[in-house]
Write a structure and sequence with these properties.
Number of strands: 17
Order of helices and strands: EEEEEEEEEEHHEHEEHEHEEHHE
Shape: globular
Low-confidence stretches: none
Mean pLDDT: 95
Strand order of the largest sheet: 2-1-17-16-14-3-12-13-15
Radius of gyration: 21 Å
Helix content: 10-25%
Distance between the termini: 23 Å
Structural class: alpha/beta
């Protein structure tokens, strides 16, 4: 397939810049793969589609406050620093993006407060906007991480075009987030409330977790028309033994196995045996899924509505079928569903 097969016009008014008032009261489009039927529900109605012993797989990654602002030495120019990943905790080396990049060269120092309690030195160039920073901080590692948290802010996507609000710290995160390491949340999971999780638990639905530390590469534009030539950035993933056991048993019992989000689905598809069993894993994955693709693990998926020509849409189309999903997106636009991170959800069953 080609990138152009995933193009559509997304009206700007449908891009959500604020979350729904209640997590589980966002809208839910239910897409039935076999019949092509489309239903319009609320997210809390999700419970109607699952039964005792069905399994949900959630991505428990936690977003850290990845966007900082510093001032360049001598000139005082304000520089945005977006933390991507820690390269060396002992040396306090980080892979980052800087903006404006043209002003930042190797050897430059950035100061994040007037007292100079946190300073960073540029030690390498990685890409046009990418740099390697060495943070200079007088104190233990835990105190250093707290300082990053103090100066950092919730990394809302630029398309929201607004200042970060206090509520974003909680809402730009799933309620079950526990493993710090992502620069963006697994957005499909942000619709789950404590009340909905409790109702599902009472019904007998099992929840199990994987970890996929989402990086910005997930959202990078696809700049090739031939999808076989597209390369994904690697992300750290963890599939625990207990998750593999729960999922494999559910598959044997012919239960529903629902991946909460494209990041979860990509993670579990990264470590599967030839017979379709989920295998425990701790490492990295750059798996790119697009149609046609034979999914080995999940038979249901929850996802948000994604932008045109994105790898997220491509994976969704691989799971639900290209024509059906693109038709569902036309319906979503007509029915004015909200798109992207704070938008509405889709259940594909």
């Amino acid at each position: 397939m080609k990138t152009s097969h995933f193009n559509f016009t997304l009206p700007e008014k449908l891009i959500a810049d604020m979350p729904s008032e209640q997590r589980d009261e966002s809208r839910l489009m239910v897409v039935h793969k076999k019949t092509g039927e489309i239903e319009h529900r609320q997210f809390k109605d999700l419970i109607d589609y699952f039964d005792d012993q069905d399994v949900f797989i959630a991505n428990n990654t936690k977003v850290f406050p990845a966007r900082l602002y510093g001032n360049k030495e001598k000139t005082g120019a304000r520089i945005e620093v977006f933390l991507l990943r820690e390269l060396d905790s002992e040396m306090r080396l980080w892979d980052v993006l800087v903006d404006p990049a043209r002003k930042i060269r190797i050897g430059n120092k950035l100061f994040f407060d007037q007292e100079e309690t946190l300073v960073a030195e540029v030690v390498d160039n990685t890409t046009s906007r990418g740099r390697t920073l060495r943070f200079l901080f007088d104190g233990p590692y835990d105190a250093f991480r707290e300082k990053l948290k103090e100066f950092g802010e919730t990394p809302l996507p630029r398309y929201m075009n607004r200042e970060v609000q206090p509520e974003d710290q909680e809402r730009f995160q799933t309620i079950y987030a526990s493993e710090v390491g992502a620069v963006a949340p697994p957005t499909a999971g942000m619709h789950f409330s404590k009340h909905l999780l409790k109702r599902l638990e009472i019904k007998g639905v099992h929840f199990t977790e994987i970890t996929c530390h989402i990086g910005l590469g997930t959202f990078a534009p696809v700049d090739v028309e031939d999808l076989s030539k597209n390369k994904m950035e690697s992300e750290q993933i963890i599939i625990p033994e207990i998750t593999a056991q729960i999922v494999n048993q559910a598959k044997l019992d012919k239960r529903k196995v629902c991946a909460i989000g494209t990041t979860t689905n990509r993670t579990i598809e990264s470590s599967v045996s030839s017979s379709g069993e989920l295998i425990p894993y701790n490492g990295w994955s750059n798996k790119f899924i697009y149609p046609p693709y034979d999914f080995k693990v999940a038979n249901a998926m929850i996802t948000n509505f994604h932008p045109p020509k994105s790898t997220l849409l491509m994976q969704t189309a691989a799971f639900g079928g290209h024509d059906l999903i693109m038709s569902a997106y036309k319906t979503a636009i007509k029915e004015e569903y909200k798109f992207l991170a704070y938008g509405d959800a889709m259940l594909i069953i």
